[in-house]
User: What shape does this take?
Amino acid sequence: MSPFLLFRLPIVFTLSAMALFAVVLGLVLVVKLIRKTKGWWLVAIIAFAVGLVGSYGGMLARHRIGGLRPSIAAPAKGSELEQPEQADPAIWQPGIEDHLQADIYPSKATAMRSLGLRMAAPVREVCGAGHTPQRIIVFRGNHDRDLLAEFRQAVSSCFPGVECVIERESVAVDVNEVGIRLDLCDLVTVAAPWSRGPDDQLAAGTLQAGVLGPEKEATAKVKFAEKPWVEDFDGFLNAQPDACLVLARSEGSCTTEAEANREAIESGCVKLTQLLAEAAPGQMPGLFAGRVTAAEIIDEGLIVDRFVQSFGGRVARVWRQALLIDASRRKLAQLSSRKAAAMRAAKRMWACVSISAIGLLGLIAAVCVLLNAATRGYYVWSLRIAGTAIALIGIVSIVIFLGH
Assistant: This one.
């Protein structure tokens, strides 16, 4: 117990004793007036006492809850780890990278294919406007055969009818031919954030294609950062049998990175709320069913990995974002405990509001009765209107005060 709390305890006890003494003294004095007046004073006494007790009880409840502010919303229905199958949003449809150029790609294969689809401009730059090579040679180098095949197929789709082959570096390039050399630049590797061992490594870097002609050269580049969970989430989960992970993605064609981030986190909030409702059925009923918020996802460290990507559109860039969220039992238990504490605080806060409102209404009723008696009913409607206005202002003030 802190010294400050020890200092406050005598003050609280003294104020409580003074409040009770004031109520008792007021009751004694008013009882004496009852003997000299009519019996309607009894109603004023009861209202006055209820008002004092209610106001004091409201302040005491406010002191105990310590100002906790919950987030209240109704939970959505869902399953614990298996979400209902839904069609991918348009921005996540397969093949969108074939039509729009992205600033980064989630795998080497996708980056290699996109690089192949970008070869039309540098090849025409090397050959000259209006000229097409008769043969395109892709130098093999040390690249994976499957990646080279993906690249060659993409280049062939840009130049239908033109032969595109994969050869060794030593092959000479004739006058009507162009060669393409692939290089991997700025390569870095990091441990996968969902892996507990050092064996699972992810690569990031830049793929560069240099187009070599008889007299000119041109280059094209694409960046990649391996995120295997973005392109094939089901296959990724099959490779991680012990992991409990959730995929959350932005669903619209966002015009800013912040908007894509907000949509992705909102999707994560909905899915985690579904998991909590399934994991603890009946524990979050009605008004106090806590919805997971963006702040809770961030504070609890539930985001394992993220992928942010933008496409060059005709008018402006289009953004999308995907999040890999930890939905393990331990994390869900921590989140559930936090939501339960917030819901208990919400119940105490609304109880405090109710008690304070009842006390305020009691005080206003007592004052109106006393003033009506003093004026012999001459200002009865004015007192009613003023009392109603003061009651509304007082209740709103209590809600605002307790909410902060």
Notes: Residues 3-69+343-403 form one domain. Residues 177 and 366 are 100 Å apart (CA to CA). The mean pLDDT is 75.
